[in-house]
Amino acid sequence: MTSQQLYEQYTAQMRKIADVKYAQAVLQWDQETYLPSGGAAARGQQMATLSEIAHQLFADEKLGVLLQELSGADELTEKQQRNVALTLEDYQKNKRYTPVFVRELAEVTSRCYHTWIEARKQNDFRVFESSLGELIRLKKEEARVLEFEQHPYDALLNEFEKGATVAWLDTLFDELQQPLKQLLSAIMKCPQPDDRFLKQHFDKDSQWRFGLEMLKQIGFDFEAGRQDLSPHPFTTSFNTGDVRVTTRIDEHDFTSMTWSCLHEGGHALYEQGLPSDQYGLPLGEYCSLGIHESQSRFWENCIGRDQAFIEYNIPLITRFFPQLKEVGAKPLFGAVNKVQPSLVRTEADELTYHFHVMIRYSLEKKLIEGSLDVKDIPSFWNEAYKNLLGVDVPDDRKGCLQDIHWSHGSFGYFPTYSLGSLYAAQFFTAVQKQTPGLAQQIARGDYSAVHLWLKTNVYQYGRTYTSNELCNKITGEPLQLKYFLQYLTDKYKAVYHF
Amino acid sequence: MTSQQLYEQYTAQMRKIADVKYAQAVLQWDQETYLPSGGAAARGQQMATLSEIAHQLFADEKLGVLLQELSGADELTEKQQRNVALTLEDYQKNKRYTPVFVRELAEVTSRCYHTWIEARKQNDFRVFESSLGELIRLKKEEARVLEFEQHPYDALLNEFEKGATVAWLDTLFDELQQPLKQLLSAIMKCPQPDDRFLKQHFDKDSQWRFGLEMLKQIGFDFEAGRQDLSPHPFTTSFNTGDVRVTTRIDEHDFTSMTWSCLHEGGHALYEQGLPSDQYGLPLGEYCSLGIHESQSRFWENCIGRDQAFIEYNIPLITRFFPQLKEVGAKPLFGAVNKVQPSLVRTEADELTYHFHVMIRYSLEKKLIEGSLDVKDIPSFWNEAYKNLLGVDVPDDRKGCLQDIHWSHGSFGYFPTYSLGSLYAAQFFTAVQKQTPGLAQQIARGDYSAVHLWLKTNVYQYGRTYTSNELCNKITGEPLQLKYFLQYLTDKYKAVYHF
Q1: For residue A276, what is the domain's CATH number?
Q2: Catalytic hit among B264, B271, B293, B350
Q3: Running DSSP on this structure, what letter comes out for residue B121?
Q4: For residue A45, which of B7, B225, B239 has the smallest C-alpha distance?
Q5: What is the pLDDT of residues A224-241, one digit of tens each?
Q6: Which residue among B53, B223, B240 places its CB closest to the CB of A37?
Q7: Residues B184 and B238 placed together within one structural domain of the fold
Q8: Host domain of residue B260
Q9: Least confident interval from A42-46, A103-107, B394-398
Q10: Which single residue of A56, A237, B302, B390 has CA 20 to 30 Å from A484?
Q11: What is the mean pLDDT of residues A108-125?
Q12: Cβ–Cβ under 8 Å, residues A341 and A354
């Protein structure tokens, strides 16, 4: 059999596995958007079964043999070789999981999701505690199974951001914390922009339609995706032709839904832009969660919270929300960039956001290394918020129950949010440098040059490179804090005039 | 190993298979409600993969051995024995399908669905012709694989209605046709009820909310299901706790959505009422399509088009639709029971409906036996409508492209619609006989006795009996035409006064 024939066999098997995984993703999307409560238990089982089947298909010895044969073959194209190498890596990692463990993890995760929902309803972490404890036990087990050199949390981090380690992140967050604190202190000495006009009543239906407009404006393709409502906004993809975002609407807050749409829209543009001919293969997948997040932050913040964006959109905004008619672009720009230490990560400003991440990072690290008990999460959380953000956490719902991530089984995920901001700023600096006249284009709502840059530099590569390799390739440097700090400083000088 | 331990193994495998099948059903539900067009191709593949996996799991030799061992065991309860016997029957039938055939069938069916959508858009059967031809080729192949004694169509019928044959249906439809023609001719001599008030403008949102009220009224459990919109209304179930119906809204027709809700609601009550502890097992499944349809007709027609139902609901109707305020119960009862030969099956009255079924039955029979070419479907269709219903078919959309069934791969399905009406009338007669004071209860919107009767006599048995066995057991007789003919005659005498 020729290498190309073997490669065909390999892609057929990978596509079959992808079919099962994406089917599971459809069930998960449905679980978070439309599932009636009576269907929850069976749905958990159904998802666990699909997860187990996908695992078994990927653990097939024949696939292992095929990958070994292919990884020696030199008649493959460079892309094909890369697919094979990455799949072999995944294969060897996946082999470490037993079917029993995969099933248990899926079932406990599903239970966690439902107890998290219930705990939020009752505003009581203790409702969530025991199933979360189960999950953390499994996550520690997972770290042992995956192996690590220095810290068990490294193994989990690596699942989301290949190459990231506790050692690297400890340094990164240390170096970030000081300048952010200084910037915050400078800001806090200035008068705050007035943002009371953002907290009026904003009609649900108008917000919904405005959100769709925002998605359309940044280039979301509604023939290849849709938006729905869910308690926690997310993006999911079943193939490049079916990428779905969700949002939530707060009738008393104009900003919440609007920038969430831009955020999820940025994720979605990435998924819609991945090479569709690589369905089921590593080169058809996103690079890392940090890079994925860079795409959402890019559109939400670098573009969406920029003065030019606000100015361009003022006519649209006042058409949908006549109650903002008296507010000009400049005050709106100020209001949506107001810095104010607060309780909820997803609604935090671009500066204090990273303190939220740092708290979760250190908490997860401790849970996984075993230096913090699950029952002590609320007190650790509340103290950390007092120390770093200076806020008092009134209850669990606004505290340690606010994020969906743990109930999804995601530990090691949060740090990628900060990495996303850093990458976004570095990419935004690069695209500006490389594109003469970009500011003028953006000022008239023309994002074609941005789309082209992202397609050429980010989307098309899939998982070809690690995040830092990609960053190096397209910006000429590894990840640097300075771009993000410069970006923040420029923005807040424009808002606060310090 | 004890029989009970073997039985446990058997149920575990069956539940796993059910998980995959229901996952596929979720993907199908999504395909018909929310899927963006760009996702269609990959979705077809994904569903085909799940179908193939379910087939492979069910074709597992180990399951065969287990079933053989269990079918000899006498330590099983009667229900357990029945599950094993029915599963063995299914197993042996399923063994006849090769994985390649299953996959091809799923892919061609998915393609058919999309070309049917496109053909309807273009109002041109020829767009659908070639993929439908492919599908019919596969269906003939399927009939051969499944084996049959007298007619290849028997094999396909049997998939939907165990025990039904061309010989039996030919007689049944022959005996039905004459009295229906006589009844129609008596009706056509009378003045028609005025139904112009049904064809006003009815606000989409009011219709949607009214439809939900109708579902609630007949006992649909919204904690265990939901309603959405789709081009063609259907019911699907992912377990007894998650049963979904869909509807469509015609803003110029009050009846279309209303009675479609009652129809799908009847299906849904059956699915919600099946024994949930039998998930994945035959006794947790519906009896046959004919019996399923009897449940929808029961609520749509026997209950929903009865004068008492209309009278009880007049206040609700006029609250949602003030434009009907001047119309009384009696004229509304007449209008929604107006008999008029027409083009579209789903909107036909209860009498001429069966002519629509007879046409499809004879057409499918001919396609499967090879005495009619796919390209000749439109002309056969149009002629048959002229002959039997006396109407001229203006185009394919209102003609042979009107039904979704072929695009779902369902041949042999249509006859079960007529069987449903017949069973419904026989059951309705039985529940009335067995329940003193039922008419008074129904007249005040109290369906508790009806629910109890259906639960006790139909829902709880799942697939324990064949449709005719069930009918015998709960009404004391096999299926009889007389109950349906009496029911129709009574109704139309009340409407037309002949």
Answers
A1: 1.10.1370.30
A2: B264
A3: H
A4: B239
A5: 999 999 988 999 999 999
A6: B223
A7: yes
A8: 166-496
A9: A103-107
A10: A237
A11: 94
A12: no
Tokens 């002959």, located at residue? B387
Max CA pair span of chain A: 73
Residue type, B354: H
B265-304 residues touching A, CB cutoff 8 A: 279
Best B33, B53, B221 residue to mutate vs chain A (most A CBs within 10 Å): B53
Chain A contact for B156 (CB, 8 A cutoff): no
Which of A104, A132, A156 terminates a domain? The answer is: A156
Same domain (yes/no): A206, A293: yes
| CA distance linking residue B380 with residue B410, whole number of Å | 19
CA-to-CA separations, A245 to A34, A384, B228, in angstroms, rounded: 14, 32, 19
Q: For residue A34, list chain B residues with Cβ-Cβ distance below 8 A.
A: 226, 228
Enclosing H/E stretch for B271: helix B254-273
Q: What confidence tier does B102 reach under pLDDT thresholds 50, 70, 90?
A: confident
Identify whether A141 is part of a domain.
yes
Same-domain pairing of A220 and A290? yes
Q: How much is the mean pLDDT over chain B?
A: 96
Looking at residue B72, what is its pLDDT? Answer: 84
Does the active-site annotation cover B264? yes
Verify that A191 and A61 share a domain, yes or no: no
Same domain, B148 and B184: no
Cα separation of A261 and A234, whole Å? Answer: 10
**Are the Cβ atoms of A42 and B239 closer than 8 angstroms?**
yes
Strand pairing category for A242-247 and A235-239: antiparallel
* Record: contact B45-A228, CB cut-off 8 A: no
Tokens for A153, please give them.
Answer: 């949390």
Collapsing DSSP states into helix, strand and coil, what is residue B460?
helix
Q: Which of B289, B214, B220 is nearest to B257 (CA)?
A: B214
**Sheet containing B235-239, strands listed edge to edge, beginning at the edge strand earlier in sequence:** B225-229, B242-247, B235-239
pLDDT tens, residue by residue, B109-131: 989 999 999 999 999 999 999 99
Domain endpoint, select from B121, B154, B187 = B154
Q: Indicate whether A161 belongs to any domain.
A: no
List of chain B residues whose C-beta atoms are within 8 Å of the C-beta of residue A42: 22, 238-239, 241-242, 279
Query: A72 CB near a chain B CB, below 8 Å?
Result: no
Q: Looking at the annotation, which residues of A are catalytic?
A: 264
Do A46 and B238 count as a contact with CB atoms less than 8 A apart?
A: yes
pLDDT greater than 90 at residue B142: yes
Chain A: residue whose CA lies nearest to B277: A42
Q: What is the number of other CB atoms lying within 10 angstroms of the CB of residue A201?
A: 10
Contacts of B40 in chain A (CB under 8 A): 241
- Percent share of chain A, pLDDT over 90: 93
Q: Is B15 on the interface with A (CB under 8 A)?
A: yes
Distance in angstroms (rounded) separating the CA atoms of residues A228 and A32: 10
Residue with tokens 């028609």: B192
pLDDT at B173: 97
Residue B37 confidence (pLDDT): 95
Assigned token pair, B264:
């799908």
Q: Which of B212, B213, B211, B238 is nearest to B224 (CA)?
A: B238
Q: CA A29, CA A32: separation in Å to the nearest integer?
A: 5
Q: Please identify among residues 28-47 of chain B the ones whose CB lies closer than 8 Å to any CB of chain A.
A: 30, 34-43, 45-46
- Answer yes or no: do B127 and B204 share one domain: no
Task: Indicate yes or no: CB of A22 within 8 angstroms of CB of B34.
Answer: no
Using an 8 Å CB-CB cutoff, list chain B residues near A16: 49
Whether residue B139 is contained in a domain is answered as yes
How many structural domains are present in chain A?
A: 2
CA distances, B154 to each of B164, B167, B277 (Å)? 7, 9, 33
Residue B358 confidence (pLDDT) above 90: yes
For residue A249, the tally of other CB atoms under 10 A from its CB is 17
Same domain membership, residue A170 and residue A111? no
- Asked if B53 and A20 come within 8 Å (Cβ–Cβ), the reply is yes
Show the tokens assigned to B289.
């399509």
Kindly state whether residue A55 falls inside one of the protein's structural domains.
Answer: yes
